[in-house]
Fold:
Amino acid sequence: MSSAAPTRLVLVRHGQTDYNRDGRLQGQVDIPLNETGRTQARAVARAVAQNPPDLILASPLGRALETARTIGEACGLPVSTDQALVERGFGQWEGLHSDAIRARWPQQLADHREHRRVDGLGIESREGVAERFAASCLRHVGENPGQTVLIVAHGAAITLGITELLGLHTSEFRGLAGLENCHRSVLEPLSADPEGRRMRLLSHNLSPDFT
Structure:
């Protein structure tokens, strides 16, 4: 039996922002953590530091980067950023409550909730987000075999990325709950996949203080 260390991918959603608290669609608007979010970031940092990763990457959006840097400080690790890890772009809907979106774009919102493509509003496709996020994860994992790669990013991007990494259809599969703020999931490469493009989910939506 091989004694080599396993390769692991840990995906962490950023801490709470005022947009999260108020139910606004965030997307790629660069909203900072609020005090609750900073408390959450410190909690997940303490938990992660009990079994620290080998490297930390983050979306460059401030809420993810601050969360990652809090984890990095606890683990004694620097943080690098990758633009491919940003949240899904929601175009004209960013910053709005669902009631406002429903009032102005009822059909488009219905299509969105049924995972149908919405054109003309600047909304990034599910497939596009899944492909860019998963490709980034696979690249960083592939460059660091036998190590634990921790990535701090965003709810929609992480959910779509995991779906893609599991080999599931991003427009049809709905069985994966989204991560809550500062919750995390753990994956590892799927040894049965000869192309190295699939992973398996070891744990999902672990709370910030889970060690």
Q: What stands out?
A: The two ends are 27 Å apart (CA to CA).
